[in-house]
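Re: [ENG-882] Designed sequences occasionally contain unexpected residues at chain ends

Forwarding the minimal case from QA. Structure tokens:
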């Protein structure tokens, strides 16, 4: 991507209250400067993007590398339950699985986090206590995001007060698609300030943004507003994470760090169900953003059923045979 800003500032950070302080801070000075910047980003070559994503997805890896990749992918899973029928018992079971994904093999790594609704945060926090597994909570009127800002911020405060380590917020897609970029920016910045020490993941719902150009603009908008992660989807719509939209977001975080010195994570979510899929995404990370992002502090999978397949493939490598259907728990 052509440079649109001064050289990176290694000391770039967030000022008190969540206001960005880096080489691009001036582009958010007004609605007009923000619009000019976002619409000045290079247009996305859809054919080229999809071709590169498809090409990287054909890479094969050796058995030793596959074993490493499976464990890395397990450690990057945000084990998720976001259903109206969630109960404390289900969340406790999910927390236990996050801490020890394979009860028969304690060498299996823990997942990165458990992701739940705000009212289940305290239960999840107790279930993973002392393990290092984080508790993430969706907020801001998830998944539609159709609520007044004070309601959204109250949602965030409740989750943080209950012990959430991470907040997954949804942007107002209606405002974004209508071109009200500063409104979306201000909401993200307000949520970031309300998060306190909790890390903020900003969900774009890429399946509703219609174009790759919009996904690129949303990525930069989220990062400019202080996102710690940018996330593809809620998992509640027809089109969720794809290799192409994730590749585009990985390019965005790479270029954002090159221009500001600030590193931002990426979380594809929804539709990633097999080990083969997960490994394809790890190849995308390595080849696009680089090794610095091959860590669960900077890359996550929003998933539930994915973990079961990762565990079954892991056992296949260890024993030479696939396990029976009762080897893993049914989420």
């Amino acid at each position: 991507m052509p440079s649109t800003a001064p050289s990176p500032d290694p000391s770039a950070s967030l000022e008190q209250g969540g206001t960005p302080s880096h080489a691009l801070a001036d582009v958010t000075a007004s609605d007009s400067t923000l619009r000019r910047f976002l619409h000045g980003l290079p247009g996305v070559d859809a054919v080229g993007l999809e071709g590169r994503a498809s090409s990287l997805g054909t890479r094969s890896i050796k058995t030793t590398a596959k074993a490493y990749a499976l464990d890395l992918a397990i450690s990057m899973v945000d084990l998720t339950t976001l259903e109206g029928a969630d109960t404390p018992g289900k969340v406790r079971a999910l927390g236990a699985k996050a801490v020890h994904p394979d009860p028969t093999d304690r060498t299996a790594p823990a997942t990165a986090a458990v992701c739940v609704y705000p009212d289940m945060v305290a239960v999840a926090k107790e279930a993973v206590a002392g393990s290092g597994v984080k508790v993430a909570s969706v907020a801001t009127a998830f998944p539609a995001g159709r609520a007044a800002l004070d309601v959204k911020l109250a949602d965030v405060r409740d989750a943080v007060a209950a012990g959430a380590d991470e907040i997954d917020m949804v942007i107002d897609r209606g405002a974004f698609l209508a071109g009200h970029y500063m409104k979306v920016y201000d909401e993200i910045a307000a949520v970031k300030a309300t998060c306190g020490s909790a890390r903020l993941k900003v969900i774009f719902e890429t399946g509703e943004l219609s174009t790759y150009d919009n996904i690129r603009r949303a990525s930069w908008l989220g990062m400019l507003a202080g996102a710690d992660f940018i996330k593809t989807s809620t998992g509640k719509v027809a089109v969720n994470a794809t290799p192409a939209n994730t590749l585009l977001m990985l390019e965005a975080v790479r270029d954002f760090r090159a221009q500001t010195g600030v590193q931002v994570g990426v979380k594809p979510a929804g539709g990633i169900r097999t080990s083969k899929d997960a490994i394809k995404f790890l190849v995308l990370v390595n080849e696009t953003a680089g090794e610095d992002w091959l860590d669960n502090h900077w890359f996550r999978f929003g998933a539930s059923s994915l973990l079961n397949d990762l565990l079954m493939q892991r056992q296949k490598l260890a024993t030479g045979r696939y396990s029976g259907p009762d080897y893993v728990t049914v989420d």
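QA comment: On inspection the terminal residues look reasonable. The beta strands are 13-14, 20-21, 77-80, 113-116, 134-139, 166-170, 199-203, 229-231, 265-267, 301-303. Proposing we downgrade this to a documentation issue.
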